[in-house]
């Protein structure tokens, strides 16, 4: 579900060519490939939102006795989604700061 927001993620690492080794801790990276609400990133570009008329996406299964249902919120919708309508469904959204490229989803 988080990939609907961030797109397909990979693991990035900083490499120091003078030392010839990886430095620091691994971190998640994304080019926003397949992200529902973002345009795909080009080299050096900042994230830009897409599909702003869609405020949220709800995904569920078709199993008995009760399917799992989850929601994803658009970070910059044209019209804010009234989550109280579906208060029993967990939703995922991006934490503030995604504009700088740090895509950090949170559930609430």
Quick overview of this protein structure:
5% of the residues lie in helices and 32% in strands.
Count of helical segments?
Answer: 1
Strand content: 25-35%
Spell out the helices and strands N to C: HEEEEEE
Largest sheet: 4 strands, mixed
Structural class: mainly beta
Total domain modules? 1
Please count the beta strands (DSSP E, at least 2 residues each).
6
Radius of gyration (CA) equals 17 Å
The order of strands across the largest sheet is 3-4-5-6
Helix content: under 10%
Unreliable residue runs: none
Rounded mean pLDDT score: 85
How many angstroms does the end-to-end distance come to?
13 Å
What characteristic shape results from the CA principal axes?
Answer: elongated
How would you portray this structure in words?
The structure is a single chain. By secondary structure, the protein is mainly beta. It has one domain. The protein contains 1 helix and 6 strands. The strands form 2 sheets. It has a 4-stranded mixed β-sheet with strand order 3-4-5-6. A hairpin with a 4-residue loop joins strand 1 and strand 2. The protein is elongated.
Descriptive tags:
108 residues; mainly beta; 5% helix
Give the helices and strands, then pairings.
Blueprint (H helix, E strand, L loop, with lengths): L1 H5 L2 E8 L4 E10 L25 E5 L8 E5 L17 E4 L10 E3 L1
Parallel strand pairs: 4-5
Antiparallel strand pairs: 1-2, 3-4, 5-6
């Amino acid at each position: 579900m988080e990939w609907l927001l961030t797109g397909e993620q990979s693991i990035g690492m900083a490499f120091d060519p003078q030392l010839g080794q990886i430095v620091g801790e691994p971190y998640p990276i994304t080019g926003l490939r397949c992200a529902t609400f973002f345009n795909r990133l080009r080299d050096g570009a900042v994230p830009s939102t897409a599909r702003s008329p869609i405020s949220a996406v709800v995904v569920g299964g078709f199993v008995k006795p009760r399917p799992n249902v989850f929601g994803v919120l658009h970070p910059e919708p044209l019209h804010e989604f009234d989550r109280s309508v579906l208060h029993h469904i967990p939703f995922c959204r991006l934490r503030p700061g995604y504009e700088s490229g740090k895509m950090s989803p949170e559930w609430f």
